[in-house]
Amino acid sequence: MAQSFAYLDNVGILHLHPLESEAAKHGKYAATNLGYDESGFPVIEGEGTVYYTDQDKAYIKGNEHNGQLIATPSILKQLVTELK
Predict the structure, then answer these.
(1) pLDDT at 2 over 90
(2) Which of 46, 54, 55, 75 is a Cys-bridge partner for 12, taking CB atoms 3.0 to 4.6 Å apart?
């Protein structure tokens, strides 16, 4: 996958965008080779993953209200360390 740019939204959810200029609009950002789904969430093992950084909780197949809680992948934790 091509390079993308990671950023945190105003509530601390991790997003990826293909354009650096769009990621920069959200403040601090970092380049990554992680793939992303159509909603801009990182894809981990084939699933879009919603990662709430303040809670350190990651969900697939939905969000905190209707998704499946998974162990937070270390790659997401490392990426967020660059963003804080």
Answers:
(1) no
(2) 54
